[in-house]
Amino acid sequence: MFSKILIANRGEIACRVMRTCRELGIRTVAVYSAADQQAQHVQMADEAVLLGPAPARESYLRADKVLAAAQQTGAQAIHPGYGFLSENAEFARACESAGIVFIGPPASAIEAMGSKSAAKALMEQAGVPLVPGYHGADQNPQRLRQAADEIGYPVMLKAVQGGGGKGMRVVGRAEDFAEAATAARREGENAFGNGDLLVEKCVLAPRHVEIQVFTDTQGNAVYMAERDCSLQRRHQKVIEEAPAPGMTEDLRQAMGAAAVRAALAIDYVGAGTVEFLLDRDGSFYFMEMNTRLQVEHPVTEMITGQDLVAWQLQVASGQPLPLSQSDLRLSGHAVEARIYAEDAEHGFLPATGTLHCLRPPAEVDGVRIDTGVVQGDEVSMYYDPMIAKLIVHADTREAALQRLAQALADYQVDGVVTNIPFLRRLVLHPDFIAGDLDTGFIGTREAELLATPTADATLSQMAGALHQALLEREAAQSRDLWSQPVGWQLNQPAQRCIEVECQGEITAVTLEAERACVTRLDETRAQVTVNGHLHSAGWFTRDRGTPRHLTLFVDGRPWHMVCQPVAEHLSTGGDEDHSLTAPMNGTVVSILVDTGQAVTAGQALMVLEAMKMELSIRAPADGTVETLWFQPGEAVSAGAELLAFVPAEETVE
């Protein structure tokens, strides 16, 4: 076994490999870019070497620098993780030439599966079922069109070097072929430097089922059950599970045997994944082989009880497979959800920013989290926006899905937009629960899965009560919301009036001791009673005082609020100070009153905007607007006098 290895990757997969190495007593070397100097994989490693600037092409993709780092630190082997150099045959060959073990398959095996068309030809020879299609070298547009006509529409065009959904087009009609082929070819050239295409019959509503295989240098090979990865968006996986719903033992054995034949046909060594399309009639067809450890490998680990990274290290060091096919046992059901910094409700656009709040659920009762970030880390524009993989395991699929839904509800992230609310809707969708899956599942249910929810009055009431409780706690006063005399009325409940803004809507919340109060408040969760109904939510704020930018987490969704007591719009400069001041830096959006106008208590006088949120400035009492100091569009600083206000004279009898 190795005593020191270098991990040529970053993020959660680098941290994942390091955890196994630590358990096995293997020292680790991290590599990093200038953007990752404080990253978690750097902190976890025994040593770390700077590769270069932030862009991957100048750091993580520099094979020469990675090899130099391995030689400099005396690493005996390199684990490539996934992505970056993991399926780069030249890098694997360079490692071998340098006398460093590449923890992956031989370069020849990577090359054999690197071209989709060449891989199809090899699989056909090995007796692995293929989708009817054309994988020939003749790339004349007329030849490709002829093949499509012969196969019958719809067909799928794929870049021969493609992956991750790039260079793929579905063509439903012959008249659309030329345009789709041009687009797929262009995308293949841009992404992979190769615009050659293959043409395949488009299997309607298939499932994406893959088989985990493992081989060693002694010629032993096993398959470790299957994973269903049908839930995808833009041909990229979102949720994976193992075993596949509805899988029979006969079908599992048939697919497993085909996957093993595929691996042995190219003299494969190590962990690999053979991906198949599974038709509704039980027919299955080879898609491709990923010559590396998969992102979704944890679900296989959960149902087999095996550490696949430990298996990789053993095989790479020349040891035989730890178990034979007959020794492998399956237990329960596992599901993985990929948590990304992305805006699912706006086209799954990737998001960047600082993870101001990151509170994952507790890793207990079959809940596992693979991540490479902690609170305070930045999600950079330079790399994949994955925050974590949330994996759950239970005795049954039903129990696993319930556990996953609850874990997603407990996952609290603020600072960047995430897909957590989308994932939870997906997990709770009745068709998914029923196991009615195919690769078009998300696309055909977008209206349900991507609907933007609206806030209700309860959220504003909860935010207002929590805001007041935090103010009083910060002032070292009682946690009792009603202990102060402000708002006292004879023979009436004590009141607080809080202005709450959420999703552009401003609500004035009146809190009464008998109707709404904070019944419990700790550092992460609050329980608020609204009209006799107890509500619980996570909360987070970076503010102190007012106005307060407050986040409530309800069922995995963050709701962003701006809260401010209405009375605090009035300057506290003294009895003769009748001005109203800006509570924050911002811009005047609109003026709602005129100079000399009489107004009533609580009436909106003007609207400010800051951080894309609007806040109304309201009259603290009945009175008259004497002077307006700003006009719409003008910027104001916190504390600036906005207008002069004269309260109505009190009547004395």
TrEMBL record:
Residues 570-646 form the Lipoyl-binding domain. Keywords: ATP-binding, Biotin, Ligase, Nucleotide-binding, Transit peptide. It comes from the Bacteria. InterPro entries: ATP-grasp (IPR011761), BC-like_N (IPR005481), Biotin_BS (IPR001882), Biotin_carboxylase_complex (IPR050856), Biotin_carboxylation_dom (IPR011764), Biotin_COase_C (IPR005482), Biotin_lipoyl (IPR000089), CPAse_ATP-bd (IPR005479). SMART domains: Biotin_carb_C, GARS_A. Coiled coil: none annotated. This protein is a component of the acetyl coenzyme A carboxylase complex; first, biotin carboxylase catalyzes the carboxylation of the carrier protein and then the transcarboxylase transfers the carboxyl group to form malonyl-CoA. Acetyl-CoA carboxylase is a heterohexamer of biotin carboxyl carrier protein, biotin carboxylase and the two subunits of carboxyl transferase in a 2:2 complex. This is Biotin carboxylase. It comes from Natronospirillum operosum.
